[in-house]
Amino acid sequence: MAITDDLRKTLSDPTPLYFAAGTADLALQQAKKVPGIVEQLRAEAPARIDAVRGIDPNAVQEKATARAKEAQETLQTKVTGLIGSLDTDLKRIGETAQDLALRSVGVAAEYAVKAREAYEKVAEHGEQTVRTWRGEMAEEIEELAITVEPNPEPAEGSIQRPVVVEAETAPAKKAPVKKAPAARKATATAKKSTPPAK
Length: 198
What we know:
Order of helices and strands: HHHHH
Structural class: mainly alpha
């Protein structure tokens, strides 16, 4: 029964659907910004192309060579310093490794919490989006109802007749009630035939 309850709880939770709706809404908001960015790039492209054409390739090559030499010297000094300061004491290295492992577990837990918070924020945004969508749909349905039935109030002098329910419709409502116990028996036999979970 615990598995069934867990499945029922998981399948009835609307949070993943809200997360999907929030993600779709945020993606739509970002997509609306794309035409402006494209126009900005189109406006800036000629100036950038002219700037690239005006650069001397030899000057760029010299700068790249100088930066590569600086990076190589910095790397050599750092490696030399690291090798010189390397402690051969295995116990200290083991403690350091254990400390790093504990830190990584802490960092992983922190990222998990941050991910959960981000998930919940997007789900909240999705819930608000769904409410907005539902509100807009309700307004559209209300406008449609007004269009179809423009005057819901009776005109003066007209008499409204009460709605009469015919006797034939009453037994039809009881028929589905009789079928419900048969469905219960089918689910009860299905539950008995399944082996218990270990």
